[in-house]
Amino acid sequence: MRAVVTRVKNARVEIDGRIHGQIGRGFLVLLGVHADDGPAEAAKIADKICGLRVFEDEAGKMNLNPAQAGAGSLLIISQFTLFADCRSRRPGFSAAARPETAIPLYESVIAQCRERGFAVETGVFGADMQVFSQNDGPVTILLDTREL
Question: 13 and 49 in contact (C-beta within 8 Å)?
């Protein structure tokens, strides 16, 4: 799995001109599922997202995870394009998991983050979405379970 995790002051996702999910301070997470991913990758990336220490402590150091910083909101958006093969000018997406594999794993990550006490908002898998965010920092971290 791959995730682009951005620390935000607020974020929202709109579908058909209506707000589907929105958060205050926390993380906007764009999540891609690889064709070879399974439950172990979902657990690994959920753990990493929830424990990522990129919020400032009292000394101004990035040392707190979202829960410790009082920023326990996540907006998790499915994004198969994170597995784009860009060797040609027209990206290929054959490495991305098919919906029958990706949806349960995407939902598993969401459930695991909620189990850890996070308020999680989402988009709709496969929908045409507009994502808005007010980045904080900006702080953006790339995660890949093959490298964790």
Answer: no
Measured distance CA(123)–CA(69) in Å, rounded: 24
147: Cβ–Cβ under 8 A, 6 or more apart, which residues?
none
The model's pLDDT over 99-134, given as tens digits with 9 standing for 90+, comes to 999 999 999 999 999 999 999 999 999 999 999 999
- What is the C-alpha to C-alpha distance for residues 31 and 51, in angstroms, rounded to an integer? 16
Domain of residue 110, residue span: 2-144
State the catalytic residues: 79-81
CATH number of the domain to which 129 belongs = 3.50.80.10
- At 29-74, the pLDDT tens digits run 999 999 999 999 999 999 999 999 999 999 999 999 999 999 989 9
Tokens representing residue 105 in the block: 């794993």
The dihedrals phi and psi of 24, each to the nearest 5 degrees, come to -90, -135
